[in-house]
UniProtKB/TrEMBL annotation:
Organism whose genome encodes this protein: Coprinellus micaceus
Domain 4'-phosphopantetheinyl transferase per the UniProt entry, residue ranges: 5-109
Keyword match Glycosyltransferase: no
UniProt name for this protein: 4'-phosphopantetheinyl transferase
Key word DNA-binding present: no
Pfam families in the record: ACPS
Length: 136
């Protein structure tokens, strides 16, 4: 399958912290998280064992990954924030990104999505590669 696109994004985490200071965290989360991610985020917040910094990083990583994915898919596909779900590394499973469009009549067919995320201090870097074919 041919490469449909490659996208990268770098995020300075304090940028998201400033956004959260100006707006309610739950409004921001509702805007950018898929339903599955939102359930994870709510569980983190209500657990009492997760720090505010971890919740901030959770949102920042998803923002960064979805920005990179948008760059990789555009203009063949124009995903919304909620069309994309990022699952981080756990139990020997690599991080992955899934695409579930609200509108099944997309202009392209996605075969595979590959994602890589790096954290370094106040920065998050993500790279997304999308394989697919344009629909004729």
């Amino acid at each position: 399958m041919p490469i449909l696109g490659i996208g990268v994004d770098v995020l300075h985490v304090p940028r998201i912290a400033r956004v959260l200071q100006r707006t309610y965290a739950h409004r921001f989360a509702n805007r950018i998280l898929s339903s599955r991610e939102h359930r994870q985020w709510e569980a983190m917040r209500s657990s009492g064992t997760t720090s505010n910094e971890e919740c901030l990083r959770f949102l920042a990583v998803r923002w960064c990954v979805k920005e990179a994915a948008y760059k990789a898919m555009y203009p063949s596909i124009i995903p919304t924030w909620k069309d994309l779900t990022y699952t981080s590394f756990s139990k020997g499973v690599k991080p992955h990104l899934t695409y579930h469009p609200a509108n099944p009549k997309e202009r392209a067919t996605i075969e595979s999505i590959y994602v890589s995320v790096s954290h370094d201090g106040e920065y998050v870097f993500s790279q997304v590669l999308v394989e697919g074919a344009l629909s004729q």
